[in-house]
Amino acid sequence: MSNPAFTSVVFVGDRREARSLYGKMKRLEERRESLVENGFYYKKQWLGNLVARLGEDYRQVYCRGEWHYLELKGNSVSFMTETAWKPPFALFKMIQRHYPSLQFYFMAEGDDWDYYLTNDAQGRYFTSRYIVDCEPDIEYFDTIGEACAHLSAYIGRDIAANWNALEEAAVDWNDSHEDADWPVAVKQIEVIGNDELWD
After folding, report:
1. Which end of the chain is more exposed for a tag (fewer CB within 10 A), N or C?
2. Which tens digit of pLDDT belongs to each residue from 116-172?
3. How many CB atoms within 10 Å of residue 144?
4. By the 8 A CB rule, do 9 and 102 touch?
5. pTM
C-alpha cells in the first residue's frame, strides 16, 4: 500500500455495544469470502466490509485500508488500521454513530505527511508523546525527559529536557554524520480534539 497511515484505536463504552462491534468484525474475518469484492490483500479485513456490515455505503465513507490485531477486553474493542493517504476518521465517527456509548481513542502516524496525532489527552490508552528514531529501533516515550535521555545516550552528549533541544541535537547529529545509513529523526505526537478530525 503506497503512502500508508497507521492508526491504533480503542473503542470503549457499554459492554454489549463493544461485544456487538467486535462480533461483527470477527465474523467478517472468519467468512469464507469477503462480504464485498475488493482489491486489498486482506480482503475480508477491508474496512469497506465493516462499513457495509453496518448498513452504510462504503463509497460514501473513507475506508481505503484494512484492520488488523482485533481484540476484545471487557468493555473495549481495539484494532489497528493501515490505510492509504490518511487515517480513517470518518469510519471511526460512523462506528460511534452506530454505537453511541462507545468513545474512541486513537494514535495515528503517517511519515509521508509527517503527522503524529492522538485524541487521548489524558493518556488513558496512548501515553506516548515523543518518538526518537535512531539505529537500531524507533522508540516511543511518554515524557520529553525520557526522549532526550535516549537520544543523549545515542549521540554521547547531554541534551536539555525540552523539545527545541531534542530537535536541535538531532539536526546537529545528522549534519555531522551525513554519510550515516540511519539518520536520526525526532517526532512530537500532537494532541487534538475530535472536533478537529477530518473526514
Report:
1. C
2. 999 999 999 999 999 999 999 999 999 999 999 999 999 999 999 999 999 999 999
3. 18
4. no
5. 0.94
